[in-house]
User: Fold this.
Amino acid sequence: MQIAIVLFDGFTALDAIGPYEVLKRLPSTTLHFVAERRKIIHTSDGLVAMAVTETLADVPRPDVVVMPGGPATRELMSNEALIEWVRRAHESSAWTTSVCTGSLILAKAGVLSGLEATGHWMWLEPLREAGANPSSKRVIVQGKVITSAGVSSGIDMALALAARISGEDVAKAIQLAIEYDPEPPFDCGSPEKAGTEIVELCRRRAAAAKPKVPFDPDRFAREWAEQWNRRDVDAVLSHFASNVRFTSPRAKELMGHATVDGIEELGAYFRKGAPLLGTMRFVVDETIWDAARRTLTIIYDRHRDGGIQRACEIMRFDSQGLVREADALYGA
Amino acid sequence: MQIAIVLFDGFTALDAIGPYEVLKRLPSTTLHFVAERRKIIHTSDGLVAMAVTETLADVPRPDVVVMPGGPATRELMSNEALIEWVRRAHESSAWTTSVCTGSLILAKAGVLSGLEATGHWMWLEPLREAGANPSSKRVIVQGKVITSAGVSSGIDMALALAARISGEDVAKAIQLAIEYDPEPPFDCGSPEKAGTEIVELCRRRAAAAKPKVPFDPDRFAREWAEQWNRRDVDAVLSHFASNVRFTSPRAKELMGHATVDGIEELGAYFRKGAPLLGTMRFVVDETIWDAARRTLTIIYDRHRDGGIQRACEIMRFDSQGLVREADALYGA
Assistant:
């Protein structure tokens, strides 16, 4: 039995990992984390980076589809390739399931037409607009379609699914193996139970959460070059962490040592070096982004006085998106 | 406030992702997934591959330590560098916490000496041996130390912690945001509730679970070369998936097309090619393993009649650990 859990940039980690932790324990099943391309997938906060195990094309007819949700679900609804994959996979699946806003994708693929379905409580109205009959139940089974409520509900959904696939005893043994004997500290896990004040607080917090744009290496490199070209040292410095370590052959000349430690010393070095650039302009040639190592390589040309010097900077980003380590390579 | 969630090869994904999904929603906090080295960390089934965001050395004094557990916890107890990091981090932490068998690591670091503590129900006796006073409660707060039971309990633990860090209203809003209103399908999440039969089934299933050895690229390459050197085509074939796609300049000569599709055609090709190797011996020179892309590059020498030909095979593994795509490069 092939189980495909869909990943996409901006997914909610627990939406996928909750069902995974249950379904991986089923006998005689093979589990895949699928996405359009074999790459590293990031949550919208950039903190969880997970690897795709198979492409959608590699697993066209899974027995079980698990569609997680997440902050990027809205944009994902216009991803024709994924929607088409879900539509086709559902034709031959034994079970088609969703967690959280993943139900919006199922709805978009036509899986939920005329069916009662659930999803995150904040997204039930969009679910109606997408063609389902929304309900605030935690897990809803409609024929071979199972939808579940927000984030953590994927665990309940997967256990219900496990019982249907391998029988109640196996599902019970799995529930015991992951010790799913929840004791939430408060009785506020649904809007009805939480009461108006907590619902409002939750909505305000969601509204205030800064939408995180996925890191765009090309845009970063372009900005960085433009900031250097207008000699805006403060703008350049804003990309670096306070505990940055910067290595450059030029630092050796200007500061007496090739390695510059900390944002203050880096500022001093940049301010010393900027006037010496003269008419030099940076033109980005290529960027290489290694998501797993959060490392950006910028290959660029330094144009001056009709001559061009090829150069390279390698920058390693910390979890806050700031450059923690950098190496400038000018060929001295 | 710095929060460090420790990762290690063979961790249980939900142990880490449950607390992450809660704690990332706290105001004014920075969350890191830390490990000894910046690399891709795998669960023991090889399916979840997560990126480390900072090294242990990068975050020596986090305000909150979260130590997940997993199948590899036992081996991890002899990792002196990690144990020392936990010991030191605990000296200045505001909270030191664990999920599942992560409590064994806290115990090993001396954090639990004389304290009541919990962990996965199957691992309470080893927890006692490690110096803690085990108890089967779900979440245990002892001063600044919080331990929690198996796998899914990290969600309860993190919500209890969130309330202590940012107040009950914020914790309630987070619980509502992840819609943690659990409805486990069975009342069997602890051994007391599950009853003897399910406990026994769970134990049998755990005992039968084949311990997964982390993929060792050097060993694989060595075995592969030895299998070729003794012309054991069946042994070589055993590494390939049924739907393998193999490309080789030699296939062009022998089969009429450079790309061989499927294990049967690959077997035919290998059987045709093996006798033509004559006295050739393969000697592995170097292996490059890209864990994120599950791709192994084997650089090797083909020794024959006193001459050496340099060659390379690039193999992409599927989620079952079988080669799905391979490219042989002999320089034709």
